Amino acid sequence: MSDGFDPASLRYDAQGLVAAVAQQHDTGEVLMLAWMNRDAVAETLRTGRACYFSRSRNRLWRKGETSGQVQELVELRVDCDADAVLLLVNQTGVACHTGRRSCFFTAVRDGRAVEIAAPERDPNELYGG
């Protein structure tokens, strides 16, 4: 976006959120879906590192703050209705809290849910759990 982009120009839902899809910038791999509020968008643009809004914790969540698996922002794109964003990122390590590279590791094939990616890291190792 240009220097004049204002996070307030996005169309946030009733909870003050927009959907945010994170995608690996060079491979196109879809990593995760999260939510952003105005402060998360502003911080992401200011710092160059992905920041989301955690609905379960009701606070900003800086990707990698506990796991070290950060997302460096390459580009932020806004969809045609300005109610969702695409973050093209450089993902360090895994993106999913389950230890997988992508949160999208289940495919529906022939009417069945099939796991298509195994964990690359032990979640307890990432989060000390």
TrEMBL record:
Residues 32-105 form the Phosphoribosyl-AMP cyclohydrolase domain. It catalyses: 1-(5-phospho-beta-D-ribosyl)-5'-AMP + H2O = 1-(5-phospho-beta-D-ribosyl)-5-[(5-phospho-beta-D-ribosylamino)methylideneamino]imidazole-4-carboxamide. Mg(2+) binds at residues 79, 81, 83. Zn(2+) binds at residues 80, 96, 103. Its cofactor is Mg(2+); Zn(2+). Its main location: cytoplasm. Keywords: Amino-acid biosynthesis, Cytoplasm, Histidine biosynthesis, Hydrolase, Magnesium, Metal-binding, Zinc. Pathway: Amino-acid biosynthesis; L-histidine biosynthesis; L-histidine from 5-phospho-alpha-D-ribose 1-diphosphate: step 3/9. PANTHER family: HISTIDINE BIOSYNTHESIS BIFUNCTIONAL PROTEIN, HISTIDINE BIOSYNTHESIS BIFUNCTIONAL PROTEIN HIS7. NCBIfam families: PRK00051.1. Catalyzes the hydrolysis of the adenine ring of phosphoribosyl-AMP. Belongs to the PRA-CH family. This is Phosphoribosyl-AMP cyclohydrolase.
